Amino acid sequence: MASDRFRARMKNLVMFVPNMVLLCGRLLTDPRVPRTEKALVAGAIIYALIPFDLIPDMIPFVGQIDDAYLIAMTLLRLVDRTEPAVLREHWNGGGDIVQLVESMATLAGRLLPRRIRRILLAHVEVAKSPEGSTALFQKPMLVAHDKSEPPAVAGG
Questions:
Q1: In angstroms, what is the C-alpha Rg of the chain?
Q2: What is the pLDDT of residue 32?
């Protein structure tokens, strides 16, 4: 039983990056995704693919943290400006993509120096939110929820 869960988690981990690329590709073609958000998703993908960025990708693990953070924050911004169902509909991996992205943003954000986080977020905070502010999140990204209620989503 425990080995089955371990295998499922390992499969999800191994397939996370390919599933994330597939997710981003599908979001770029979804008519419900605003053009500005598509441009930011495309920019985050390009940033992740370029080996020379704020933390060079040639440094194993550490080099991918800034990429993961930028992609996660871009997808959380997308969730804030569309319906979370848009992301969930295109996700092929295991688990809830919104919760996975929130966790990835939180973990990567803790590992990155504040200066690098600010630089990366400066590129994400381009468009105004529906309320008219340019702040990416005015609510906590991770919220505790009662198990009897559906999970709360970032920005929702």
A1: 16
A2: 95
DSSP label of 23: H
User: Cα(62)–Cα(69) distance, rounded to whole angstroms?
Assistant: 11
Contacts of 51 (CB under 8 A, 6+ apart): 57, 58
Q: Give, in order, the Cα–Cα distances in Å from 11 to each of 4, 29, 61.
A: 11, 27, 19
Stretches in the chain below the pLDDT threshold 50: 126-156
Which ranges in the chain belong to alpha helices (H)?
Answer: 2-29, 35-49, 62-81, 84-90, 97-111, 114-124
DSSP state of 152: P
pLDDT of residue 39: 93
As a whole number of angstroms, the distance between CA 40 and CA 52 comes to 19
